[in-house]
């Protein structure tokens, strides 16, 4: 072989070199292209070797499965012939093998409401305005008349020779169910949002998932504040754990729970909620959720409690009322029956409370009632029920007592407790006394209603026995009560039947030894009952209010008699008439008096009204005004039965009184009781210093009279002078009277012994 330089030199020399160079260049170029092509082929070969080319049938299988898994329908619409080719994957009934179902048909009808929008979107896509055709609309598929919601997506896949679209293909799915679910979800959340009740959804661990605006309104917690938090965050501090304990167990066990729970608002206030809780499954049907509906029933509960309170308690005193008393008494009786014990019922009625109420006004009356209620409760102890039945009537239930003596001891304690006056305002006091009737289970009755009735009867007996005392029920009392009721109805007719009349008891002046006047005393001669004692029918007339009518009649009658006496030449005589508390408290006494004076033409200066201390002291201020008005008419005013009440002398001094009548109680034992002597003397001295005319009542014998005379008493009245006589007889007695002619004999000389 030739060396290369030699070869090149020989080629150049031969003139063939340019051709050789060109051939070489072509060769190198071809080589580079070849290598490059080889490398590319190798690269392509190595790339395709990662997923080896699948056989056609496997590929078809995968596509089928993908179509089945997607749940989509494949569609292909021929725009020219308006034919729709559909394809979707389904499972063969038995084998479960996936198979592709195909059909071809005309385009199914589209709901008329959706059609314009579908057409609009189609047009936009066909014109190239949108890259994809997408629509959700209703179609009717096959023979089924129901509309099915379809979500379709596709695009033009083929154009004609002129470039216009001829085929459209894509996928579609039935979204009826998911749309319905979404719709229902929307409605549900809208309902939840607008519900007045608070709604909270809790997860399976009782943590908040969601709440509605009412929940925020009722609890003060926003959704963001409670989401993920345990339900206990809304429990009140006392029952936070209780809340979970109460709800969780029954809810997980029964799937539902309802009850009332105290919750704490965010601001700390407590709200009572009625909770209705239900278990629901989450969207996947797996996990449990709990829906709690809260109703704020705080106000309702409060109103219920208030109603219950109103139904069972007396609003004035706060004591149980009649309804609660019956309930408690029934229970007490049942217990006593079971245990063989005793129950005492005390019926407590305040004496003359009506007068207090009428005279001091209802507001003061109420305050006194409150004070009295507290006093009774304090006296019997907090463990015993004290109820207010009505007005001034209280009832006490005493359980666990062994004997009637024990029951009476409780009665005595209540009486004792009222010895001190009741304070009913700043520095205001009033002496009030109760009358108490006591009945016992099982001694007097077996059932609560009879026990109450008997205690009431016994209470009336306590009143009849002079008030401010207690009485244990006895069967005989029933007779008395019945008798009183019959008597009261007889008294109502007494005036019109003219069964009432007046008698007059003379009064003698000790200085003149002459009869100076008489006291008019009422008598009742009943057709049914015969002669009824004033001590029996006058309290009855006062209780029933009949005393107002009777009192006016008495006044007129007495004035008439006095006018007669004056007409018969004894214009020096005077007549005194007794006046009841009710007449005074009604406030129109002076007007009644004025009318009677005008009607009868009596000389008012010869007329005297007798009022007891307690009558005046029931309402001192108001009564003083009435008395002043009477006094201005010229009428004299006497305080009757002096010494039996507890009025203050300094107060009496301020009243326009003219006369003081010493009660016969002091006079009775005057001759042999040093205390009575001393008291009588004091009363006489005091009266004189006050410028009052002093009259001693109930003078029955000479010894009394002598003592009274010696001690400066002005007048005497009593059987020793004369009993009360009918008007004409009394005048005859007066006209004929000369010292020593009475029913008793007057001493001609004063007795040696004087009061000291
Ligand atoms: P009083 O106003 O203190 O009347 C005096 C009572 O003492 C009368 O009783 C009279 O009969 C009685 N008496 C008089 N002298 C003697 C005596 O020497 N010894 C005894 N033991 N008693 C004597 P009477 O008539 O039974 O009246 C009782 C009370 O009834 C009266 O007490 C008075 O408070 C009331 N009363 C009588 N008449 C009326 C009336 O018309 N209206 C009113 N509101 N009360 C009247
Ligand atoms: Mg009198
Ligand atoms: Mg008297």
TrEMBL record:
Name of this protein: EAL domain-containing protein
InterPro entries: Biofilm_reg_signaling (IPR052155), EAL_dom (IPR001633), EAL_sf (IPR035919), GGDEF_dom (IPR000160), Nucleotide_cyclase (IPR029787), PAC (IPR001610), PAS (IPR000014), PAS-assoc_C (IPR000700)
Annotated transmembrane regions: 20-39
Domain PAC: 257-309
Stretches assigned to the PAS domain: 184-254
Gene3D superfamilies: 3.30.70.270, EAL domain, PAS domain
UniProt domain GGDEF: residue ranges: 341-475
SMART domains per record: EAL (SM00052), GGDEF (SM00267), PAC (SM00086), PAS (SM00091)
Positions of the EAL domain: 484-738
Keywords linked to the UniProt accession: Membrane, Transmembrane, Transmembrane helix
Transmembrane helix as UniProt keyword: yes
Cited CDD domains: EAL, GGDEF, PAS
